[in-house]
Amino acid sequence: MRVAVVGATGFQGGAVARLLAERGQRVRTLTRAAEADRPPLRGASFVGGDLADLADVRRLMQGATHASVVMPLVYGTEQVRQYARNIADAARETGIQRIVYNSNTRIPAQSTNVAAFETRRIAEQELRASGVPLVVLRPPVYLDNLFSPWNGPALVTEGVLAYPLPAGTTAAWISHRDLAEAVFAALTVDGVEGETFDIGGSESLTGDELASAFATGLGRKVRYLPLPPTVFEQALSQVAGAEAAAGVAGIYHYMATGTDPLLMAGDGGRAADALALKPAPVDEWVTRQPWQVWSTEAS
């Protein structure tokens, strides 16, 4: 394959680009960054440009056979619609054979006033309207969010796992690597065009069950601390900016209402069966991470 990866300079898209390159696929991505400021992404080539410019997106897609798409952390309705429409138009015009769209979140069946859900729903609709064969992946929450400067030190030194989901909410936590495996499968497996999959890890865990899995992986006691979404949003805004933080935090404000407590849960194995996926159990993922870096950071 020759794959145009939209979002390869971010965490999820970067994981996809790395896995594709590891497996001998040709990868190209779009970036606004100057050449000197582009992140190291072995095996990928860069096209300078912006998703807001149809000509730039065409140049990204030209000569590609497939596309993997995840939207940047923007939540303006018309901005996201324009990005998605440009991707859809460019994919159709350049003869892309299949698009895999990672919505970066589950999406409720009913409409909401949450921008993080509704803008991703709009992007999905625009891509589907292109007529290019589409596979949609809707992940729940990422384990890699917990291997971070915000969680790592507290986990290693205090055994505290803080996250803005209610303790009783079940979630099928998934790693970026297993997300990338799902994207690769969705790009290559026959007969899944047109499907939407609620992908996730091998287990649906409450907060306490997640802490227990971390305790097994870390070899120490771990307790779950449900973080208020407002606290999460304030902390994220220091890194990502107020607009992006409000967009991301909207998901957790919604989950805190209890309106849709199973939104992030497993799908009964449907996605794993259709895409032949075997996501790693949480405790195994935990064991593989170099947690000592946070111990050093804390000291």
TrEMBL record:
It holds the Pfam family NmrA. It comes from the Bacteria. Belongs to the NmrA-type oxidoreductase family. Coiled coil: none annotated. This is NmrA family transcriptional regulator. The lineage of its organism: Bacteria, Bacillati, Actinomycetota, Actinomycetes, Kitasatosporales. Keywords: NADP. It comes from Streptomyces niveus. Residues 2-243 form the NmrA-like domain.
